[in-house]
Structure formats: structure tokens, C-alpha cells
Design a protein that fits this description.
By secondary structure, this protein is of the alpha+beta class. 15% of the residues lie in helices and 39% in strands. It has one domain. The strands form 3 sheets. A two-stranded antiparallel ribbon has the order 1-2. It has a two-stranded antiparallel ribbon with strand order 3-6. A two-stranded antiparallel sheet has the order 4-5. A hairpin with a 2-residue loop joins β1 and β2. This is DUF6795 domain-containing protein.
């Protein structure tokens, strides 16, 4: 929650300056000494849950899945081995 609060205070500063937000998100899972990307996404807003149309992210992560580009909707996709539920 601390990160979200810091992000909100930062967005107040940027509210007065024209810009395109690019919030990079990386989530990796380490198991048996191996690291796999579960989620990699660049969010174009500062909104809480803005990457999934204001809905919380729920993911299912099957370690046997390959990392790949996966669709959020018809316009946006993410990289990882987890699937959105």
C-alpha cells in the first residue's frame, strides 16, 4: 500500500505538467533456483487497478506454462506465464 500512496502523491505533482504516464510493472516468481516472469506490463495511467479496467488482478500461475504475450483485452497485452482470471 505504501507504493500506491507514493504514486498518488507523485501524480499530484505531474498533474500540472503535460505528460504521458508510463508505469512499468514487473512481477517475477523464483522457484527451485529458477526465475520466471509472471507479469510484465507498462501501465499508461496512475489509477489503482488501471491496468485491468479498474478490477483487481487475479492471476493463475502454472509453472509449466511458457512466458508469452497474453491479452488483457483487444487493445492491451502483457508478457508472462500467468493467466488473468
Amino acid at each position: 500500500m505504501l507504493c500506491v500512496q507514493a504514486l498518488k502523491s507523485l501524480s499530484v505533482f505531474w498533474r500540472y505538467f503535460p505528460h504521458n504516464p508510463a508505469v512499468m510493472q514487473h512481477l517475477s516468481i523464483v522457484t527451485d533456483g529458477s526465475t520466471k516472469k509472471a507479469w510484465r506490463f507498462t501501465k499508461g495511467n496512475y489509477d489503482l487497478n488501471g491496468e485491468n479496467n479498474k478490477k483487481a488482478l487475479f492471476m493463475e500461475c502454472e509453472l509449466s506454462n511458457d512466458e508469452a504475450s497474453r491479452d488483457i483485452d483487444e487493445l492491451r497485452s502483457y508478457w508472462g506465464f500467468c493467466t488473468l482470471k
